[in-house]
Structure formats: C-alpha cells, structure tokens
Design brief:
102 residues
C-alpha cells in the first residue's frame, strides 16, 4: 500500500480545487464578470460622457429609441457603456429579456 504524507495530500487537494475553479471561471474576485446588458434610450438626446458625472466631457450622443449595450455598473446614477463612455441611467430602459437591472 502506498501512503502519502498528509501535508502533501492537502497541497494536492488545494491545487486540484484551484484548477477546477479557474477552469470554470469561478475563481477569485472579478473572474467571470457579468455580461453586458441592452437598453433603449428614452431621452430625445442623451449625452455620452467620459466619466460618471454631468461635469465630465461629452464624447458623443444617443438618440431616442437607440439600442445600446452597457455593463451592469452604475456609479452616481450613470451607467457604464464601456470604453470610457457613461450615460445617465435614468434615461435607459432595459430591452425586454435583458438580464440587467434598470
């Protein structure tokens, strides 16, 4: 019968556990971040800004009814569209079937 020292068994079990979690995308904070969400613009014209605030630089505009993809992140009432683009969350309505909260 082959016996392994207990510390070696514990290290091996830990390595296997971490390997499993990394393989499933569940290891660590930030791994497997939520996917994007889809919204319709409800304002006539919605300014896109470089940061989460009305004092941030305007980097674009969106029109009424336009569909945008965003992240679940909302900071100070502004939703992150990704690529340093933010809009006022109050002027976005989730597309039916979207998993993102308003």
């Amino acid at each position: 019968m082959f016996l392994l020292p207990r510390p070696l068994l514990l290290v091996g079990a830990g390595v296997l556990g971490v390997s499993y979690l990394v393989g499933t995308g569940q290891a660590g904070i930030g791994a497997g971040e939520p996917g994007p969400c889809t919204f319709h613009v409800t304002a006539d014209v919605l300014n896109v800004r470089s940061g989460p605030g009305s004092g941030e630089n305007k980097v674009g505009k969106l029109g009424h009814g336009e569909e945008v993809t965003a992240t679940p992140n909302v900071v100070g009432g502004f939703r992150d569209l990704g690529d340093a683009r933010w809009v006022a969350a109050e002027f976005l309505a989730p597309v039916p079937g979207s998993s993102c909260d308003p």
